[in-house]
Sequence to fold (330 residues):
Amino acid sequence: MIRQYQTERRGAVLPLVVICLIVLFGFVALTVDLGMMAIARNQAQNAADSAATAGARAFNGDPAQGYGYTSVPGKAIAAAISNKVLNSPVQGDPSITVTTAATSYTSGQVTVDMGAYGYYYSDDVMPAGVTAPAQESFRLDIPRLRATDPWSAVRATIAINNNRTNFASIFGISAFNTSATATAVHRPRDVVIIMDLSGSMRFQSLPGVPYDTSVNQARPSANNWARTRSMNPETVYPLFGHYADTAGAALYGNSSYPTTTYEYVDPANFSTATNGGPCLLDDFYKNPVGTALTVGNASTYKAFSRRPDSQATTPGGDDFLKTSLDGSTT
Fold:
């Protein structure tokens, strides 16, 4: 019988522990240090957002004051340095000297660029080297390209270098860089309340107006309230029955009439285009259930459809209203 003897291998587990520790430290570095990088990135973005917003709010929209241009970088930097990245304040000096000769300013870890946010028409004369866009659109220009555009845009960049790592230094990574950029624009809006004391804003919706023949104005006198002037420019209108008296019926009118306040009552644009705008009836659409309304089939789904022109003389319903209690046509 043959016996085999094996010698004991004391400490053989030690190399395995060392290898596992290296892997373990690697995952710790991945978890802790990458988490720190993400936090630093978010905090830098917060600083950039606040800087860009504060800078854009410094614009005042007044060309006589240079749109508040010289105060923008200082306001932006002041907002940025009120933030911290990994518990360290963002560095910068808000008291920097600003002139209109430059559009970019850097102080410490903050860079502020200024420009304009404006609307470009397809037929605009573009600055040198800029191709006209195929379609009209808003465009952000930093720096400003058109001298006629008001200063209205701010881009803030926060750049922080040499943030210390923790476990990643074992692998030779002792620091990392963080940066973030944000852009804000100044777009003031005015709230306007219009009080139509004269009532003239309703004129283009009037199918008929009173007419004072004594002064030849579309404004009633004390003794004349007859609505004898039609403001309907549609050339197809009822001609059957008593409407055959076109002058008396006053169903058609395509002239503007002045008022005593030197305003004009223009023809209504209900069924045809006038100075008041396009035909209103053509602007109302409906969608069949489950059917998308597209440009190609918009005309198919109009909420209002015109009746045949033949109904001007041969109506589809009653010829005209009865005027006597006995139902006669008198």
